[in-house]
From TrEMBL:
UniProt source species: Streptomyces triculaminicus
InterPro entries from the UniProt entry: DUF885 (IPR010281)
Domain of life: Bacteria
One Pfam short name: DUF885
Protein name according to UniProt: DUF885 domain-containing protein
Amino acid sequence: MPNTTSAPLPRQVADAHVSAYTELDPITGTYLGVPESARRLPDFSPAGMDAVAELARTTLRRLTEAEGRPGADTDAERRCARLLRERLTAQLAVHEAGEHLRTVSNLHSPLHAVREVFTLMPADTPADWSAIAERLHAVPAALESYRAALAEGLARGLKGGPLQVTTVLGQLNEWIGTGTGWFGDFTASGPEELRTELDKAAGVATGGLAALRDWLRDVYAPAVEGAPDVVGRERYARWSRYWNGTDLDLDEAYAYGWSEFHRILGEMRVEAERILPGARTPWEALAHLDAHGTHVEGVEEVRVWLQELMDEAIEALDGTHFELAERVRRVESRIAPPGGAAAPYYSQPSEDFSRPGRTWLPTMGRTRFPVYDLVSTWYHEGVPGHHLQLAQWTHVADRLSRYQATLGMVDANCEGWALYAERLMDELGFLTDPERRLGYLDAQIMRATRVIVDLGMHLELEIPGHSPFHPGERWTPELAREFFGMHSGRPAEFADSELVRYLGMPAQAIGYKLGERAWLTGREAARAAHGDAFDAKAWHMAALSQGSLGLDDLVVELSAL
């Protein structure tokens, strides 16, 4: 008889999957801090992506075997097994539909992954820069493999959206530039002893960008002209599962987005009156703040200001509302490289915390930054938002599994926590200043508006009669852009970038509000179960230490804490 006592359990299967996956995807390896990944880039070709899919199928077979072994029925094993099966099944559904053959996006694509990974690589020693140079030489082959996938998509009639292509061509032109280009600027701070090698490598990488740009412009763009930018209900439902970890009732989600829109708009009107009495709309008050409100002047000054904001939040929250390990307390504020999307973002620490968690601010050419637009956003991206959750996952990965703390991330879980974190800071009294609170509400209504327009335009839903905007008509991308612009205090270029993002990442944008709802539902259920004995600090730390979960599972697990 086989020795089942040494056979792998679900968490071991999950961790073996992470190790095998990083072999196929060295970019993920760099995110995790795997040194062996530093000199390579993935194969994005159809064959390369088929290899990733085959790994998922193999892991699912091994998981089925592991679930039947003694010891697989503990809570820790059960939770990991459920996540692994759900994630791999959702990813295979997207792959088998050929979505990887038409991935063109202003934010989430192989092209963007190739560029961004260099910003996460160690750059402290000549050896670090030697690895960067070798990886730069790999850029053309990686981008050629991505081009091969898009070409296969054209052959199968699977086309990316024309608006995505136009936007990405603009990004490529900016990264290539007229001088040394983005890669040349990036390597300029490297050691002089490697200057010749780095300059050559940067030129090779920039040549890869130029080759992809020329093909997109001359071949791909004409081939996709007239193709729809929206995806329809079938594709949207598949992507919704991928981003949210559950099969949502899309029509109920649309109705929820509208209910939140009206609720938040009412609160905004109250705050706007405090700032600019008689303001016709909250956005008139926000425009007043753009001109007369509190600002931070200078790019380096705003980076320092955001760092201080996160440091202050950690000091105020640690020991009172959270219990943070010393390495979780470290987070860095960074300025995002030029040429990307307009939205701020966060990057998770490496597994050993040698690279800390980082928030990134795209300046979009600005040097003057209104405070109202920054505070709740950095509570979202940094503390107590993405950083506290993802750094805590990394901190307790040995109690979970590598998979639950890294590859198994469900986007709506994380974005939901970050939006919940903004609301938590409001509940705790950090947003009593009218400017900061109106900015928070502006961020909140943006997330509600995302639910409305993302679902609305991709599913071509009817605008309801209670809408203040075009009731009875069907959503189009043009109407979505107008509606979003009318109900946001952010600049026009931000609204333009957001619309392209939603069209290129269907169903990702709805996870913020729906994820927040899951977190709130779970907290209230736990509070009701414990009554006066409910300990919010203990609940928060337990919730942040359970790793990733899809939204349905998240509510169940949070309610039981």
